[in-house]
Amino acid sequence: MEQNIICEFVRFHPILMNAEDFCDCYELTLQRYTTGTNLRDFENPIQAEFSKSKQKSIQKALNAGVEYRITQNPASLKGFKDIYERTMNRKEADAIYYFDDGYFDQLLRNLGQYILLVEVFYEGRVIGMSLNFAYGKLIHIHLSGTYFEYRHLSPAFVMRYALVLWGKGQGCEMIHEGGGKGRGLDDPLYLLKKQFGKNTDFNYYVSHKIWNPEIYSRLCHMQRVGETVLAFPAYRYAHTIS
């Protein structure tokens, strides 16, 4: 109240499982399931965590001459932005999945030392790239892009292979893949990611809290929205009451 906070939205960390620490003061909502590759508990995480079909695809690509390179704290993300945007265009992704130059500039400026850029090559040409974060014992896969015409060389799978080898060599314990677009265990994107984390699952929780109900209600009224809409905070909801 002293800080005039009206409401808050909280994202809890699936790997740290810190939602459990706040279950008595927040109403937790399971946002989605996430997965990852466990590097700590397996001597050979690729064999233990990757599906057989993905292992075969990776080996086939490497035998065909596919190579990779990992760069820490890259000087530029322009090449990544180009291939990422082409991938999003191909998938007809929603606007939320696009990021402007300012976003990538801020990543380099504020988090550059934690960025791992994975590039996959074939005959000297980049055919896939992924933008990842590494901090302490954890690697998080953030964004990736591939060229459709090279899909038979499995660049997206080789990226994960490269991260496992690098992470294992650096003493990392987990590569966090994230989850799907929906909440269900049958989400196609989640099921794809599970093929790189057969034995690893996490629950991603969120919560929100209204600290000043009177002001919250007034803001909703000013924006002509009901307080029960699914979006939070409701007063930022774009659609007005009919």
Strand and helix layout:
Layout lengths: L6 E5 L17 E10 L6 H5 L2 H12 L3 E6 L5 H13 L10 H11 L3 E8 L2 E11 L2 E9 L8 H15 L4 E6 L8 H7 L6 E10 L2 H10 L20
Parallel strand pairs: 6-7
Antiparallel strand pairs: 1-8, 2-7, 2-8, 3-4, 4-5, 5-6
Helix pairs in contact: 2-5
Task: Give a structural overview.
With 242 residues, this protein is an alpha+beta fold. 30% of the residues lie in helices and 27% in strands. It has seven helices and eight strands; from the N terminus they run ββααβααβββαβαβα. The protein has helices spanning 45-49, 52-63, 78-90, 101-111, 155-169, 188-194, 213-222, and strands at 7-11, 29-38, 67-72, 115-122, 125-135, 138-146, 174-179, 201-210. Strands 1-8-2-7-6-5-4-3 form an eight-stranded mixed beta sheet, sandwiched between helices. β6, α5 and β7 (174-179) form a beta-alpha-beta unit. α2 (52-63) crosses α5. The protein is globular. The mean pLDDT is 94.
